[in-house]
Design brief:
The structure is a single chain. This protein is of the alpha/beta class. About 35% of the residues lie in helices and about 25% in strands. The chain has eight helices and ten strands. Helix 6 links the parallel strand 7 and strand 8. Helix 4 crosses helix 5 and helix 5 packs parallel to helix 6. The model has no long low-confidence stretch (mean pLDDT about 90).
Length: about 250
């Protein structure tokens, strides 16, 4: 199977500091790959290169096996890459439909915003992703953390995302809300999307990810299948830069 994404030998430096130093990672359809490492390890910088926020100094990005030129977030969206930041970038005073279509509103033939059409489309996507979602009229400030994640994910998926970057999707969520996000991620996997998941929570990574790539000091320590390692193995990679006995080839 051809990877959705291949980031090959990626390098970027800031003022002589190698934030990402010859890193190679990939992502397949229907897969979640966790990116782990201490603050400053380079994982966020690597993902910002994929999302178009930074341009790599050297290295290649391949999307569906073909070389991609990603120099801006607009380029990333053209390749069906969407980023869901920890802050979710939602407008708290607007409801789910207004957030989903923010900046891309549906209009009537007369040119007016078509609130009914936007709500109908939002109900369709929510039925697919989170059938229990009911608060369509409420401003998103009134929603729970898991429901807010649902809105952010729906916005990305509605506009044809095939590659999702999720930044700490379960941060500050309770057990029930974390389970809701886990179910959303499982649904996206079943639909063939690929997800890069940035997290500091090893328990979440073990529960949600198929593989884990660990970075330290800008370099890739290694990539492992979650089912082949223990939490201690992953901690050893993060803290010591130590490769476990079982490594993904």
């Amino acid at each position: 199977m051809t990877p959705l994404v291949e980031m090959r030998d990626i390098c970027i430096a800031f003022g002589g500091i190698h934030a990402v130093d010859h890193v190679t990672v990939d992502l397949y359809p229907g897969e979640v790959v966790g990116l782990l490492g201490h603050n400053g390890a380079g994982k966020s910088t690597l993902i910002k290169i994929l999302s178009g926020a930074y341009a790599a100094d050297t290295g290649d990005i391949l999307i569906n096996g073909e070389k991609a030129e990603i120099r801006s977030p607009r380029d990333a969206r053209r390749y069906n890459i969407e980023t869901i930041y920890q802050t979710l970038a939602l407008a708290d005073n607007l409801n789910a439909a207004q957030n989903l279509f923010l900046g891309r509103e549906l209009t009537t033939p007369a040119g007016f915003v078509d609130d009914d059409a936007m709500e109908a489309e939002t109900r369709k996507i929510m039925k697919r992703l989170n059938p229990n979602f009911e608060k369509f009229a409420a401003p998103v400030r009134a929603l729970s953390g898991g429901q807010r994640q649902s809105v952010a994910i729906a916005r990305a998926v509605y506009f044809n995302a095939r590659i999702l970057i999720m930044d700490e999707p379960t941060a500050a969520l309770g057990v029930k809300e974390t389970q809701m996000v886990a179910e959303l991620i499982a649904q996206l996997k079943a639909e063939g999307l690929g997800i890069f998941l940035i997290s500091h929570d090893i328990h979440d990574v073990m529960a949600l990810c198929d593989r884990v790539s660990v970075m330290k000091n800008g370099k890739l320590v290694g990539t492992v299948r979650v089912g082949d390692v223990t939490e201690d193995d992953i901690l050893g990679m993060i803290i010591l830069g130590k490769q476990p006995a079982v490594m993904v080839q």
